[in-house]
Amino acid sequence: MERQGFAYKGCDNLEAMSHAVNYNKYLIENILLYLSPKHNTKVLDFGAGKGIYAGMIQKECSAMVDCLEPDKRLQRELKDRGHKVYESIGEIKQKYDPSSMRLMYLNI
User: Which CATH number fits the domain that encloses residue 100?
Assistant: First the structure.
């Protein structure tokens, strides 16, 4: 996204936040309060970025974490980590019934 000489590079922020260990742990602990530790729990990560949270959630509760990420480069990283990646909300509507979702989260 570019606006009057300012170019937003979301990847820069993602890199900085990957080092915010306590902050990331705090967010994950709060998300995990709403997930059961059972296998086959479905989670959808909106704006998954590099998959830091998706990976932590998958590790902590054996959830199946799918990711919505519009950035092509980040999509490749997520796929390399084994996540199902969606590029748009339209794709998600085909798979997920919102009334059946236990938890959806948005990290901005």
Answer: 3.40.50.150
CA gap 87, 69 in Å, rounded: 5
Residue 3 falls within a domain, yes or no? no
pLDDT digits (tens, 9 = 90+) for 4-21: 665 555 566 666 666 667
Q: Which H helix or E strand runs over 7?
A: strand 6-7
Q: In what order do the strands lie in the sheet with 42-46?
A: 84-86, 64-68, 42-46, 104-106
* Domain membership of residue 87 as a residue range: 8-106
pLDDT in tens, 23-56: 878 888 888 887 766 656 778 888 898 888 888 8
Amino acid at 85: V
